[in-house]
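Reminder: ligand-aware prediction takes two inputs, not one.
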Amino acid sequence: MSDEPLGLDEAYSVKSPDDNRRLYAKWAATYETSFVDAKQYRYPKAIAEVFNDVVGPVTRVLDIGTGTGLTGMYLLRLRPDLVIDGMDISPEMLAQAQSKLRQDGSAVYRALFERDLTRAVPNENPPYEALFSSGTFTHGHLGPECIANLLPLLEHNGWLVIGVNNEHFESRGFEQELASLVDLGLIQSPEILRIDVYEPGSVHHGDQARVIITRRRK
Ligand SMILES: C[S@@+](CC[C@H](N)C(=O)[O-])C[C@H]1O[C@@H](n2cnc3c(N)ncnc32)[C@H](O)[C@@H]1O
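Here is what comes back for the chain with S-adenosylmethionine:
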């Protein structure tokens, strides 16, 4: 194996849930140092900021594709009273998220669940008031068809704030999937924002993601 750190090339070349399990098992311990810090990846922070700007008062929320827990960590700085659970396919990434702490030393995440979000998602908790996601709707990870898997996890009128890789959004037809969910009466007509994924100064600065903002209807 090459000594080069894992990065976007490896992340974008996965094709299946098993590929994702293998990639993130290898990457979990160095994901933040070799990628997030090295490339000045601001996606988790940006999703936390959008959530804070658009979502009304809520308490129980769920992080979709939690990874090492950066989105929950940033969101709690803006909304310290939130109770955040997380779901991800990788136990190694979830173990990193489990170790994220609030300033008072308590855990950022109340509970974490190993789930493959490409399938119907078992949920042992009452439906959540809001879901958010950063970096997980991307090449070879979650496609537009997975949005429908998330809806049963949400209360009626519950919020979705979902970041989607720009090219993936266009090539995989997110717009059409959202239109069909609206037609079926399952979600409200979404608002789509654009955010910067990397800080100024990053080699990837200029790459943007879409953010889907909508609410569950029935
Ligand atoms: C690029 S990381 C993003 C993590 C975190 N949200 C962030 O922004 O730093 C993508 C995450 O998606 C998770 N993932 C990939 N495929 C998945 C699947 N089928 N079901 C659930 N999670 C998946 C990976 O394990 C990984 O933690």
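The mean pLDDT is 95. Residues 11, 17, 20, 24, 43-44, 65-67, 70-71, 88-90, 93, 115-118, 134-136, 141 surround S-adenosylmethionine (CB under 6 Å). We will return to this case in the review session.
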